[in-house]
Design goal:
The protein has helices at 2-19, 24-32, 34-71, 86-102, 111-133, 151-165, 168-177, 183-212, 229-265, 273-297, 301-329, 338-371. It is globular. The chain is mainly α. Helix 1 (2-19) packs across helix 7 and helix 2 (24-32) packs parallel to helix 11. The longest helix is centred in the first third of the chain and has 38 residues, at 34-71. The protein starts with a helix and ends with a helix.
Length: 372
């Protein structure tokens, strides 16, 4: 999976450089044509919108635990002050931090905050591993499952894995924000980033599961006691990470909305700065308010991830695969080398894998809804 994920990022950078486009959807539009481009834009809008909702839910989950530590009372206790209410704390954090970070036109300025969020992620993994090696006395693990219930359970986990590793939508703007955007350099950057992410996910996932067993919460930090100071710091780092991630995903979603609006109005991209700024602020505020309202009334992050996890597979596999196929097909030499056929075959493999994960996720969601 990691090889496919990294190759997708490299393919997108190559196609971005070849087409001279600066966003994911513009690359797909330029390389694959109008129909695929429109499908990509709609998918990005849905995915980024749903992910922003999930990020706000994560903020609320972690804040509940932190407030319980500060108030020295269990979260959800009756008679709590109004300013500790979940809806108020999420809204306050969103208005103070997320909205200002989401308004700027470019995302390059976020490199410093993103670096802190990466360090915070390492801290979270370290805490989970340490708590597994030296567990607290009050933590009793549930049943430790040693194998999946069925192969279907394995396939059901793949969309969540795709959700965790999906950074492809924001990768094209980030690639073009580099001081010297070169595909070779980009390949080294994304390889290092994905290996770090793999280590973080494996350390957190394995040790978190072995600590609590089958009773582990989907958000593993929620399984630890509220009064644990070290875990409370980890929750604060998670909030910091989500604050920066929201604005980056929002940037990608806003770019899609902007492109659709300009195309619908038949307006040129090169227009006066004042009109662009007013439209950007309006789009940002509307997007922000809608995601905030939905996050306040959807308490379970698992429901959001189950909906958008399949779309993540499309951004990792399907669209990069189509871009690779189309880029190679555009080379019209009569005698094609073996590498040409290998790359086209690899593109077909990516598309097939992504379509399988997306189809399986969609079919499973439909079946569960019908059964319910």
């Amino acid at each position: 999976m990691l090889v496919f994920i990294i190759s997708g990022l490299v393919i997108l950078a190559y196609c971005s450089q070849a087409s001279n486009e600066r966003t994911y959807q513009e690359v797909v539009w330029a390389v694959c044509g109008k129909l695929t481009g429109v499908l990509c834009e709609v998918s990005i809008a849905i995915y980024t919108f749903g992910t922003c909702i999930a990020f706000l839910i994560i903020i609320g989950d972690q804040q509940d635990k932190i407030i319980a530590v500060l108030a020295k009372e269990p979260e959800g206790a009756g008679g709590s002050p109004w300013y500790t209410d979940r809806k108020f704390t999420i809204s306050l954090t969103a208005f103070l931090f997320i909205l200002p970070l989401s308004i700027p036109r470019e995302i390059g300025f976020q490199k410093y905050a993103s670096f802190l969020s990466v360090v915070g992620t390492w801290y979270v993994t370290a805490i989970v591993i340490i708590k597994y090696i030296w567990p607290d006395k009050e933590m009793t693990p549930g049943d430790i499952l040693t194998r999946p219930a069925s192969w279907m359970a394995v396939f059901n986990a793949m969309p969540t894995i795709c959700f965790g590793f999906q950074c492809h939508v924001s990768s094209v703007p980030i690639f073009n924000s580099m001081r010297q955007p070169e595909v070779k350099t980009w390949g080294g950057v994304v390889t290092a980033a994905m290996v770090i992410a793999l280590a973080v996910y494996m350390g957190t996932g394995i040790c978190g599961f072995l600590t609590f067993g089958a009773s582990v919460d989907p958000d593993v930090l929620l399984s630890y006691p509220s009064n644990d100071v070290a875990v409370a710091v980890a929750r604060a780092f998670i909030i910091l990470s989500v604050l920066t991630s929201y604005s980056i995903l929002h940037f990608c979603g806003r770019a899609v909305v902007e492109g659709l609006w300009l195309r619908y109005q038949e307006m040129p991209v090169e227009e006066d700065v004042g009109r662009e700024r007013r439209r950007r602020v309006l789009q940002t505020v509307v997007w922000f308010l809608l995601t905030l309202l939905l996050a306040l009334f959807i308490p379970d992050i698992g429901k959001v991830i189950s909906v958008i996890g399949g779309l993540a597979a499309c951004f990792i596999f399907v669209f990069p695969g189509l871009c690779l196929i189309q880029a190679k097909l555009s080379e019209m030499e009569e005698v094609k080398p073996a590498s040409w056929w290998a790359l086209v075959s690899y593109g077909v493999l990516l598309v097939t894998l992504g379509a399988f994960i997306f189809g399986q996720t969609t079919a499973n969601a439909v079946f569960v809804d019908l059964w319910a």
